[in-house]
Structures are given as structure tokens and as C-alpha cells.
Amino acid sequence: MNLLFNVGMLFIGAGWILLLIKPQLLSSSGTPIRTLCAVVGSLCYVGSLFNIGDLPAGSNFFTISGVLSLFGNSKAILSTWLHLAAIDLVCANFIYDDLVKQNWKSKWIKLCIVLLCFFAPIGFLFWMIVRENSYFKQD
Prior knowledge:
By secondary structure, the chain is an all-alpha fold. Helices cover 69% and strands 0% of the residues. It has six helices and no strands.
């Protein structure tokens, strides 16, 4: 389980770094390396699901007490963290590509990506609210 977590976070972390400083870096197949990092992180998450084991009684995703019960299983916590980190990177990749297609100014793209990295829902809302506003686009 630790190996999956470590490999997943290594690739997810690398994906975020690439997204922030060199998002256009491509693999030999032409796929952005940041996207490949998101794929590896997602695969590590999927692998972690097979190693969670039995969850504590009362665990569920629909009540506060059920969610708190999930945190009684360290493997579930690691899997949950991989899930959150991977899906944030997947969404950020999608949003970055959209912003480039929308011809956004570089500084606004970076702001959106930083918001997504640290406060994913706020970055998503920022993108949704301002994505069509011409102020943020290049002339």
C-alpha cells in the first residue's frame, strides 16, 4: 500500500509541478507529460482500492459519522488521499487545456491552476465564472 501511495504521489506531484512551470512539455507520443502523470496517479488510486480491506462498521459516504468511521482505516485514508490528489490533477489538466483554447492570458491561467492546486473547488468556480470574460483573454 505504501508503494502505491508513494508512486502515486510522486507522479501526481510531478504532474502539478509540470502544470505550474512547463505544462506544454510533451512525451515522445505527443501527450503532455502532466497528463501521463495524472494517469499513473489514477492507476495507483485504482490499485489502492484492492488493498483497503474491511472497513469499520458504520462506514459510509452519506453521513458525518459514516465518513468519520472511514478514517479508522489507514488504508482507506491513503486511498482517499490518492483519489483527491489524482482527480484534482485530472481536472486541472482539463481546465488548463480549456484555458489555452480560450486564449487566456498566461498570468490568469497560472492563477487558476494555483487555485485548483490548493483550493480545487475555488479554482473550479473561478474558471466557471470568468472563462468567457474577454478581460482575461489575450488581445
